[in-house]
């Protein structure tokens, strides 16, 4: 794996999701300087770290060595690799999801979901 190419892909995917280096660093428990080193190809990335980055960016790990620039998969977790759904997000949708993920309160998240469902029913 070429660290520069992997780093460029990390940067591209991070920016598509409107994340700062600091936000990605927090998600993978490293310093933002370490994310900079990854993105600049200055540091080799272990497979374990690359897996953490792929989870933090919600992409399959194969996104780093295939031409897979804008696809994002549903949060892994309750889905096996075969069951993961891949779909396209525009910038506004990605921004909404990133903001939603920052909400800590389950009650608030549930309220947002109810609100969205109510809006859909009105249309």
Written description of the protein model:
By secondary structure, this protein is mainly alpha-helical. It folds into two domains: 3-89, Orthogonal Bundle (434 Repressor (Amino-terminal Domain)); 90-123. Helix content is 57%, strand content 5%. It is built from six helices and two strands; from the N terminus they run H-H-H-H-E-E-H-H. It has helices spanning 3-16, 21-28, 32-39, 47-57, 91-102, 106-122, and strands spanning 71-73, 86-88. It has a two-stranded antiparallel ribbon. Helix 2 crosses helix 3. The longest helix is centred in the C-terminal third of the chain and has 17 residues, at 106-122. It is elongated and about 50 Å long. It starts with a helix and ends with a helix.
**Biggest sheet layout:** 2 strands, antiparallel
- Please give the CATH architecture of the largest domain: Orthogonal Bundle
Q: What is the number of domains?
A: 2
Q: What is the name of the CATH topology of the largest domain?
A: 434 Repressor (Amino-terminal Domain)
CATH superfamily name of the largest domain? Answer: lambda repressor-like DNA-binding domains
CATH class of the largest domain: Mainly Alpha
pLDDT < 50 runs, ≥5 residues: 68-88
Strand arrangement across the biggest beta sheet:
1-2
- Taking the alpha carbons of the first and last residues, their distance comes to 49 Å
The shape, in one word, is elongated
Helix proportion range: 55-70%
Number of helices: 6
Strand content: under 5%
| Total number of strands | 2
């Amino acid at each position: 794996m070429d660290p520069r190419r992997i780093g460029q892909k990390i940067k591209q995917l991070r920016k598509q999701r409107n994340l700062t280096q600091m936000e990605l660093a927090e998600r993978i428990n490293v310093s933002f300087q370490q994310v900079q080193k990854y993105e600049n190809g200055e540091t080799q990335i272990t497979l374990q770290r690359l897996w953490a980055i792929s989870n933090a960016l919600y992409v399959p790990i194969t996104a780093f060595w295939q031409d897979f620039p804008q696809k994002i998969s549903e949060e892994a977790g309750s889905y096996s690799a075969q069951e993961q759904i891949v779909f396209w997000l525009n910038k506004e949708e990605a921004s909404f999801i990133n903001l939603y993920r920052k909400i800590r309160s389950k009650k608030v998240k549930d309220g947002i979901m109810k609100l969205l469902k109510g809006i859909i029913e009105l249309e």
